Amino acid sequence: MGDAVTTTRLTRYFRRHAAVDGLDLRVPAGEIVGLIGPNGAGKTTTIRMLTTLLRPSAGQALVCGLDVRHEAVAVRRLIGYVPQEKGVRHLLTGRESLEIEADLHHIPRRRRDQRVAELLDLVGLLADADRMVSDYSGGMQKRLDLACGLLHAPELLILDEPTLGLDVVSRHRIWDYVRRLRAEGRAVLLATNYLDEADRLCDRITIIDRGREVVTGTPADLKRDVGADVVRVSTDRPEVLRSAIGHRAWVRQITIDDAGDLHVHVDDAATALPDLVRDAVRHGVDLTGVHYHRPTLDDVFLRHTGRVLAGHPA
Ligand SMILES: Nc1ncnc2c1ncn2[C@@H]1O[C@H](COP(=O)(O)OP(=O)(O)OP(=O)(O)O)[C@@H](O)[C@H]1O
């Protein structure tokens, strides 16, 4: 199967500021690819170029082999886009919202009703189809947004923060639909700040920062690269502790986060911890907290960007 998205040195300037700066991104058909980055990293700008809403300043973006710049109309037919804020029509019912969306896609009337019913069923809203959208819960509205993005059976679905603000049950339902799309061979590009979501859902993730790709890989590979365990140490003298343990053979990498906590990547926490505590005592460093865990995508993100990703759920 070919690629649903290939970008080559994709770049977009706003005045002299490069919001997207030479980005190479690939979304193969039949895969869910996560696009992850801190606020202002360039995710929305990338998505807006892919959806033909914004012209690239330089480089190339292909959607199913079609150039977004020169074949915008054809590209739009291939893409379903569910933006962060869809602004569903509160004065309509769920069914009416989908009918209007179907008309925008020029779906013939005789097919429209059946297609709308199919999608309402897919996202579990058939029973509530004739209720006003204003009476829907946040999760129901998101599912309606998703159904709107799927009406014209797109090859590529682009989701911008699809589960933002949703409860756990609603998030799982959205994930199930997204997995079902993948099983049908469609490609999904998912911009999210929820790293647990990316970990569970994505076949591959690309972390971007300041408009550039920082790293790409499967969640498992990226976590494996971090090391076996991560020891998080709270102390009021992080720099002293860093120098005290920096030369130790069991240290793979040390990062100090914005809160001043040390994140020490080690092969085996059980061996490293006694040494670490001894080194702290020898250098007169008080430890106020020591925890360790298997690497998560949060650790991957911190390792590659030097920052903790803000704004994910507890
Ligand atoms: N229309 C615009 N005019 C000027 N600057 C812009 C415009 N759109 C985006 N930018 C700038 O481009 C950079 C990337 O923004 P973008 O919205 O793509 O980031 P993002 O990764 O989607 O962030 P967030 O997670 O906050 O949505 C930011 O510095 C932003 O201020």
Which key phrases capture this entry?
single chain, 314 residues, alpha/beta, Rossmann fold, Alpha-Beta Plaits, 2 domains, four-stranded antiparallel β-sheet, 37% helix, binds adenosine-5'-triphosphate
Q: Quick gist of this model?
A:
By secondary structure, the protein is α/β, with parallel strands linked by helices. The protein is 37% helix and 28% strand.
SSE blueprint:
Layout: E1 3-14, E2 17-28, E3 32-36, H1 43-50, E4 58-63, E5 66-67, H2 72-78, E6 79-82, H3 94-104, H4 109-122, H5 138-150, E7 156-160, H6 168-183, E8 187-191, H7 195-201, E9 204-209, E10 212-217, H8 219-226, E11 229-235, H9 238-245, E12 251-256, E13 262-266, H10 269-282, E14 287-293, H11 297-305
Helix pairs in contact: 3-4, 4-5, 8-11
The structure holds adenosine-5'-triphosphate.
Report what the structure shows.
With 314 residues, the chain is α/β, with parallel strands linked by helices. The protein has 2 domains: 3-223, P-loop containing nucleotide triphosphate hydrolases (Rossmann fold), CATH 3.40.50.300; 228-294, Alpha-Beta Plaits, CATH 3.30.70.100. The protein is 37% helix and 28% strand. The strands form 3 sheets. Strands 6-7-8-3-9-10 form a 6-stranded mixed β-sheet, with helices on both faces. It has a 4-stranded antiparallel β-sheet with strand order 2-1-4-5, with helices on one face. α3 crosses α4 (109-122) and α8 crosses α11 (297-305). It binds adenosine-5'-triphosphate (ATP). Adenosine-5'-triphosphate binds at residues 14, 19, 37, 39-45.
